Each structure stands twice: as C-alpha cells, then as structure tokens.
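(Protein data)
===
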Amino acid sequence: MFTKKRFLKFFVFLFALLLSPMICATIGLSISVFANNNSILSLGDRHITVENKTALTLYVTPVTEAYSEPRVIEQTQIRLKNFEIQPGKSIELLTGNFDFPLSGLVVCEATETCRALRSSQDVLTIQNYNTLGEVPESWLNAHQQQPIIDISFVLYPLLGMLSISLFILGACIDFKQ
C-alpha cells in the first residue's frame, strides 16, 4: 500500500520521467543554435545576404513555395520573422537548398505595409522599397500566421530544468515515517 510519502515520491518521479524528453529537446535546440557552419546539421543550408540600400529601416521575412502553400523559412534563433535591417546595412539569412529553397522575401516597413522581392539569388539588394512588387495574398497569409518569437527557446530549457529538479526532489524525499 502507498503511504503519502511513497505516493508523493512516485508521483514526482513519474512527472520527472514524463518531462525528461524536454532535456533531449533542449540539447537538440542548443546544438542547432550554436552549431557552426561546418557542422553536419547545416548540410544543405544556404546563406542569403540581404542588403538594404534604402533610407528606411526594413523588416524582411524569407518565404518558400516548395510546398502546397507558401511557408515562412524559420531561422535558428528566437525571432522567426521580421528581421530588421537598418539603412545601409545587411543581414544574413539561412535557407535550405533541399527542404526550404528561397522563393523570395516579404519586405515590410515599420508601418506594416509590405512588398515582395521574388528572387533566389545568394545576395539580394533592396535599392528602392517602392519598386518592389506586390505581396501575393498567400505569402501575406503565411507571414501573418507565423509567430514573431519562438517560445520553444524558453519553454524547452525551463521544462528540462523542471525535470532535473523533480528527479533531485524525488531522490531527496525520505521514506521514513
């Protein structure tokens, strides 16, 4: 029969065991963020440089049409879309050669008006914001549906630490009555 302390210890260990995959997810997330370009994880990745030659601060989001509907190409960082480029500066984005080939960029001003730059080149230069094309409705929908921040960068490590804490807590619970 379970006493209160044994039940508590069993419950804590069971909960810690259920959360332990978060430790693996945290490790995988850390490797993908801190991996260098020569890593096996970046095999097939392609670096795209986006240059802002305008006088405006622009926010760019890479888009692919490799699937049935356009998708935002997620980057391995906390921010998932609307990467800021100051006037006269450039930014480097990561796309996949195989799974997420670049179809173009959704380029937005601070006023939330957006334009499209359709290109798959390695260096994209924005000379004049007003000369960019209209954003296709499907690209705009993909852009609007994508969250700005990836909460898994905070959630996975917290749940991983909770799992470890529960294992330690469960080991510290005394069976003495």
Notes: The CA atoms of residues 64 and 99 lie 9 Å apart. The two ends are 14 Å apart (CA to CA). The mean pLDDT is 78. The helical segments are 4-19, 21-34, 137-145, 152-172.
